[in-house]
Specification:
With about 150 residues, this protein is an alpha+beta fold. Helices cover about 45% and strands about 20% of the residues. The protein is elongated and about 55 Å long. This is Tat pathway signal protein.
Length: about 150
């Protein structure tokens, strides 16, 4: 019974502290996590795009997957607004450009060519927007080989 008093006091303290900790009042930062754009850059002209992937199909076989992280730099506010309105069409055109590059231009066991991939994606973006002014910026290009059984 000697421990009953301190135990009750600790339980009451814990019960009072739990709502404060849950509401973020425990001295930690109550800011929301940064958006993807804020993590990459603080530039208002940058329009992040989702991660794109496409299969590398050569000789009627899946040779791997090409994964690209990228965004668009659009200094003109009116063009940036048009790009935001046409975001689904831009994503479709960029996926198609990546699929074309990974199946036609890319050769297995070589490094991806960022210049050629950027060129093809730039053409797709300019076609969707109807004008030049949005610049394709690649962040990552990753080629992933498929998992093969060890007996092959």
């Amino acid at each position: 019974m000697r421990f009953a008093g301190p135990l009750i006091a600790m339980l009451m303290l814990a019960a009072l502290a739990a709502p404060a900790a849950a509401s973020g009042g425990g001295g930690g930062s109550s800011q929301a996590p940064a958006t993807r754009q804020e993590r990459l850059t603080s530039a208002e002209t940058y329009m992040p795009m989702p991660t794109f992937s496409a299969g590398v199909l050569q000789r009627n076989d899946n040779q791997g997957t090409m994964v690209v992280d990228m965004g668009l730099d659009i200094p003109d506010e009116a063009l940036r607004h048009r790009a935001q309105l046409n975001a689904p069409r831009l994503r479709d055109a960029l996926r198609t450009a990546l699929a074309n590059y990974s199946s036609v231009y890319y050769r297995v066991h070589t490094a991806p060519n960022p210049t050629e991939l950027t060129r093809q994606m730039q053409i797709a973006v300019d076609r969707v927007l109807g004008t030049q002014g949005a610049r394709v910026l690649l962040a990552n290009i990753i080629y992933q080989r498929p998992q093969r059984p060890s007996g092959r």
